[in-house]
């Protein structure tokens, strides 16, 4: 903190009621936001689920990102809420929604289609990176279309990470199903002619 800013004296968040912790997700101080997420996760108070879903619907990154984390820690991040987070205006919320969807090690058909749409049209490089990271953790039949969708885009030609991540993701699936990887290349003229 700057010497000109007043000292933050409100530090004992454990004494706060759960609704106050939900409001703290929008605090300007990172420690307050992260501590509130942790405490909400530990308490797993059912009464906070609806306010957290409301916070997740707000267009700003904070408190939406922290609400997503809290719902996940509480085990209350349902499929419909996760799918709505895929369309959030803040890239970090979209990226974390993708990460949480991949934690199941397989995507629902709705999550797969939403992720494939993002792989095709997502403007943010960090979100595309998370799609590739998640693609390493899911079955080859879901992973390769995501890798292909990102690989045929010209957006990432000069990115220092995404082309290599795409390669590593394809390579990781070679050990499990090399035939599917080879078929992806054999059946995709667009992939061979893409500048990527």
Give a verbal description of the structure.
The protein has 196 residues and is mainly α. Helices cover 65% and strands 0% of the residues. The protein has eleven helices and no strands. Helix 8 runs antiparallel to helix 9. The longest helix is centred in the last third of the chain and has 25 residues. The N and C termini lie far apart (44 Å). 34% of the residues are buried. The model has no long low-confidence stretch (mean pLDDT 93).
The overall pLDDT average reads 93
Largest sheet: none
Distance between the termini: 44 Å
Residue windows where pLDDT falls under 50 for at least 5 positions: none
Strand proportion, as a percent range, falls in under 5%
Helix content: 55-70%
Oligomeric organization of the protein chains: single chain
**Strand tally:** 0
Please report the number of helical segments: 11
- Radius of gyration (CA) equals 20 Å
Shape: elongated
Order of helices and strands: HHHHHHHHHHH
Structural class by secondary-structure content: mainly alpha
Map the helices and strands.
Elements: H1 18-24, H2 30-43, H3 49-56, H4 61-74, H5 79-85, H6 91-102, H7 109-121, H8 125-135, H9 140-151, H10 162-186, H11 189-193
Helix pairs in contact: 1-2, 2-4, 3-4, 4-6, 6-8, 7-9, 8-9, 8-10, 9-10
Essential attributes:
196 residues; mainly alpha
């Amino acid at each position: 903190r700057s010497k000109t800013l007043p000292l933050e004296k409100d530090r004992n968040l454990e004494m706060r009621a759960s609704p106050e912790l939900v409001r703290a997700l929008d605090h300007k101080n990172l420690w307050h936001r992260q501590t509130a997420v942790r405490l909400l996760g530990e308490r797993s108070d059912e009464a906070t689920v609806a306010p957290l879903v409301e916070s997740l619907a707000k267009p700003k990154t904070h408190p939406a990102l922290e609400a997503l984390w809290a719902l996940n820690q509480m085990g209350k991040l349902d499929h419909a809420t996760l799918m709505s987070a895929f369309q959030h205006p803040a890239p970090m919320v979209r990226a974390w929604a993708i990460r949480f969807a991949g934690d199941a090690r397989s995507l629902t058909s709705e999550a797969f289609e939403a992720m494939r749409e993002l792989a095709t049209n997502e403007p943010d490089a960090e979100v595309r990176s998370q799609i590739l990271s998640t693609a390493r953790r899911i079955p080859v039949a879901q992973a390769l279309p995501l890798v292909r969708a990102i690989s045929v885009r010209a957006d990432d030609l000069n990115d220092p990470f995404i082309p290599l991540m795409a390669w590593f993701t394809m390579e990781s699936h070679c050990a499990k199903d090399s035939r599917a990887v080879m078929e992806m290349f054999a059946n995709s003229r667009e992939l061979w002619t893409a500048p990527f």
